[in-house]
Amino acid sequence: MRKYVIMGVQGSGKGTQSALLAADLDLVHISVGDIFRWHVKNHTKLGAQVRRLVAAGELVGDDLVEDVVSDRLQLHDWNYGFIIDGFPRNRRQAEFFLESYDLDGVIHLDLPDDEVRRRVLARRLCSRCGMDYNLIAHRPSTEGRCDVCGGELVTRADDTPEALARRLRDYHTKIDPVVELFRRKEYVMTIDARAGKTTVQQAIRTRLGLPPYAPPHPAESA
Q1: What's the pLDDT tens digit per position in 116-150?
Q2: For 195-219, how does the pLDDT look when each residue is reduced to its tens digit (9 = 90+)?
Q3: Is position 11 annotated in a ligand binding site?
Q4: Nearest to 84 by CA among 171, 2, 4, 188
Q5: Which part of the chain is the Adenylate kinase active site lid domain (predicted)?
Q6: Within a domain: 216
Q7: DSSP 3-state assignment of 164?
Q8: What is the CATH number of the domain that holds 99?
Q9: In principle, which of 24, 30, 56, 196 could form an S-S bond with 84, CB 3.0–4.6 Å?
């Protein structure tokens, strides 16, 4: 059983890299952001709370994140292990995590703030089906329209320069000390996240001592 934490600022590719690892190793990918987006999309009570916070330009509180992650891990559907992103978000949560789970590694995706701004401000979301796009790496065939359903592509409510600046400040204030705590426990492997997704994935596997990444043949992934 393998248990990994993946950390990195918004736009560093945590979701992409987690999905690639999870698919090959039969891990459960636990994404705090995906959980919250599901609740927003399905109009749950939690989703309404998250929507209000985002509309006000505020971040979801650490206590709420902790409750969501705790509930998710208690499902115990991770027979071969998990990779979790978006948690822990402060030193207390990190210490609890270290006491509760025997981690096999903490993957730290390192990305300069100027590259974060370039990537995040290029993101778009389909207003109809929720498909993610990025005008740098994943452009739609028809400008402004989703390739899947034809819906209008919009900017996420929290992807504004002002909101991103707040998130970057919050990230460095809260998460940098968490990374340092993990580093002192010799769990952390820092990966340069500026390269393409295949290069980054291979670097992660090399550091974890895993078999090389074999990208799917285009015909297989179509």
Answers
A1: 999 999 999 999 998 889 898 788 999 999 999 99
A2: 999 999 999 999 999 989 887 755 4
A3: yes
A4: 4
A5: 123-158
A6: no
A7: helix
A8: 3.40.50.300
A9: 30
